[in-house]
Amino acid sequence: MTAITGLAPGEGDLLARLRPVDRRSRSGRPGGSRADAGENQPMHLKPLALLTILFPLVAATPVAAADLQLTIDNPSPAAGQMYVALFDSAETMAANKPTKSQIAPITGNPTVVTFTGLSAGLYAFTVFADENGNGKLDTNFVGMPTERYGFSNDAMGLMGPPKFEAAQVRLDGETKATTIRLR
C-alpha cells in the first residue's frame, strides 16, 4: 500500500484504499492510453465534454422547415407521369443526385407537386413528363429530349441543362409557390 506524506498517521493509508492509483491501461501496459483517459476524469466534467461535442451539431441543425409548391403548366393532355427532382446545390444538380424527388400522375392541367419540410436555402428542380411510361426522359439521336421537360425559373441551358444559378429558387423558411411551363 502507498503511504501519502504530510498527513496524520493512518490517514494516508485510508485515502490510498479509497482511491487507488493504477497507472496501467486496460491492456496492462504502464502509462495508460487516450482510450483510458475518460476513466479518470471527474464525473462533473463528462457532461461538459458531451455538450462540447454535441453543441456544434445541434447549432448547425436548421430550425425552420418550409414547403415548396410547384405548379407545372402542362398544356398537353397526354397520359403518363411527372418526374420531379429537387436539388440543393450546383454539385448535386451537375451530378444528377437529387435531394428529394417525386413522381406524380399527370391528371390534367396543371399538375401540382409539393415538397415539404425543406430548410431555408437555395433549390432548383427539373421536371419531365414520362408519356410512354418507361421511367426516363427519352431523347433523339442527337440528345435532344423528345418528351416534355422544364426547369425552375423556366431556365434554359445552352446545349444541355441550365446551371444551378439560373434555375435556383430561394426558400426563406416560409411556404413558397412557383410555376414552370413544360417545353
Short description:
The chain is of the alpha+beta class and 183 residues long. It has four helices and eight strands.
Give a written overview of the molecule:
By secondary structure, the protein is α+β, with helices and mostly antiparallel strands. It has two domains: 24-59, no CATH class; 65-181, Immunoglobulin-like (Sandwich), CATH 2.60.40. It contains four helices and eight strands, in the order H-H-E-E-H-E-E-E-E-H-E-E. The chain has helices at 11-18, 46-59, 90-94, 164-167; strands at residues 65-73, 81-87, 100-105, 111-119, 121-130, 149-151, 169-171, 176-181. The longest helix has 14 residues, at 46-59. The termini are far apart. Residues 1-5 and 14-20 have low confidence and may be disordered.
- Strand and helix order: HHEEHEEEEHEE
Radius of gyration based on Cα positions: 31 Å
Low-confidence stretches: 1-5, 14-20
For this structure, what is the CATH class of the largest domain?
Mainly Beta
What's the shape? globular
How many structural domains are formed by the residues? Answer: 2
By CATH, the architecture of the largest domain is named Sandwich
Count of DSSP-assigned helices: 4
